[in-house]
Amino acid sequence: VQKTYQKMVMHKSAFWSIKEIIRQAEKAREVSSGTQEARLESGIRFEQVTFGYDEKRILDDISLQIPAKSLTTIIGPSGTGKTTFIDLIIGLYQPDSGTVFLDDTPLPQIDLEQWRQMIGYVPQEQILLHDSIMINVTFGDPELTRADAESALRAAGAWEFVSAMPEGMESSVGERGAKLSGGQRQRIMIARALAHKPEVLILDEPTSALDPASEQLICDTLRGLGKDYTILAISHQTALADVADQTYRLAHGQPQKVDRKPD
User: CB of 59 within 8 A of CB of 50?
Assistant: First the structure.
């Protein structure tokens, strides 16, 4: 009995910590009452959207349009709300005031699960498994075939170097993608996002860790993809602005449209 009591005392703090984590998770459970099917034919629209964390206002009464089947870039220094802007589109946050629209339908009325299945997301950090290119593109999803992976690699501009490797798509990328260059790793990440055939492609700092030559290649790839996908890329660099169909500079909670340089 004494030994059992001692074990109970030893695990008591861990038990209550786990209970508190569960309570916080349940409190933060996402509530989505939207039922309408997500459609994106004209684009995504922000209408007088304001958002902040506690008393700190991040976005201040912004209104702008992201046209479908085009490349839109949001640029600006770190901490200006670029990632928050993306989170509002995905539906991870709700505006304090104003509305985000898909075409003419307010996002709160949309089935968020179905909407997110239409999005391909490329995070800032390049996370590659120590496995084959095939696995890194499909994550082992049984619904994705070799044809799906090849199609995604071609769209991402990666097929040329992948097909030249000794084992093609079965070639290993190495630990954290060590066998690939930075630009090649980024193309694999883009191919992963495209494998599920999304309608929207969102990229978080897609060129931040690349040399100028690789950066230009990725920019050219995204410009080509803009004909078939609605692409939104956020960056603190300006290279993407030169190839985007429209660019907004986010500063002090307000977006300012940047004129595109002539080709």
Answer: yes
Residue 145: CA count within 13 A, CB half-sphere: 3
The Cα–Cα gap between 12 and 7 comes to 9
pLDDT of residue 263: 55
Find the DSSP H helices in the chain.
2-27, 82-90, 112-116, 133-138, 146-155, 159-163, 182-194, 212-225
How far is C-alpha 250 from the chain's CA centre? 18
Three-state DSSP class for residue 233: strand
pLDDT confidence of residue 262: 53
Cα–Cα distance for residue pair 90/169, rounded to 1 Å: 31
- Low pLDDT (below 50) residues in the chain: none
pLDDT at residue 254, rounded to an integer: 86
Residue 218 has what DSSP assignment? Answer: H
Which residues is 56 bridged to in the sheet?
53
Say if residues 65 and 115 touch (Cβ distance below 8 Å): no
Pairing of β 71-75 and β 200-204: unpaired
Report which of 196, 216, 197 is spatially closest to residue 206, judged by C-alpha positions. Answer: 216
How many whole angstroms separate alpha carbon 166 and alpha carbon 188?
17
What was the pLDDT predicted at 54? Answer: 81
CA distance 173 to 151: 19
Q: What is the pLDDT of residues 47-57, one digit of tens each?
A: 999 999 888 88
- Give the pLDDT of residue 118: 94
* pTM (two decimals): 0.81
